[in-house]
Amino acid sequence: MADMENSFTERMALDQEMIQLYLSQVFAGEPRYASLQEAMEYSLLTGGKRIRPILTLETCRMCGGAPEAALPFACAVEMVHTYSLIHDDLPAMDNDSLRRGRPTNHVVYGEATAILAGDALLTAAFDHLTRAELPAGQVVAAVACLSRAAGSAGMVGGQALDMAGEGRALDLEELELLQSLKTGALISAAAELGCIAAGGTWEQREQVRTYALALGRAFQVRDDMLDVISSQEELGKPLGSDQANEKSTFASALGLDSCAALVEKLTRQGVEALQCFEHPDFHIWLAENLALRMK
Known about the structure:
Layout lengths: L1 H24 L10 H9 L6 H12 L8 H18 L9 E2 L2 E2 L1 H5 L1 H19 L6 H15 L4 H10 L7 H26 L4 H28 L2 H4 L5 H4 L5 H5 L1 H17 L8 H11 L4
Antiparallel strand pairs: 1-2
Helix pairs in contact: 1-3, 1-4, 2-6, 3-4, 3-9, 4-6, 4-9, 7-9, 8-9, 9-10, 10-14, 14-15
């Protein structure tokens, strides 16, 4: 068991290294205008867990493909995720001053540049989808997948619900819809993009989506728990911002004990969706580790 743990930890570190190297080079040859590219790289290269691009690479591997072929897809997802964090931290949204242990983008570069940096990262993501050396049909499928997940029917729609829900208590059904869009849609797309890169079947894509949607819900529930039980040093961002903005969370709606039970249930559901795959061990390990994470 310890050997397997070490093996998966090492594999995750190698994935992170490959992702970081790709991201560090994406804007290297481009002209630089004012502080725009610097602001983009400030947030994009900071690090973080890189869960979404890792899911893309490892799902490609699980579906029989070469992870390297999925790298442009993986890094496109991370660009979309980074843009969403920059905009989420803005004064008009959550007004957070700390992200990943550093001042947020708008604190360093100003609101206008932060907005433009987010816009540019979103646009660059779709450029990099088209750079994958894969058949045109798979690239088109990837563009369709990520655009659905990132737009008004996915992450942006979830953010709109999040803002509209400030100042009132959301019931559990409203909260689940909000988070399935704001958090779950992009996590699901990250995994599905890996399946697309591997040339997976439609049935495989459906099973991967089922796994990733459960993973995304569990991730968000655990995130809400950590906002209560963790520390600012561990999380690298201020605690209690949801409470300060009068936002409903799973922790406030259910309580910590029920949240822990829900994370366990969702993790089990996600793992069950992987039974059709020959080698799902990394995905099982990842789901179980995320369910117990402290940051």
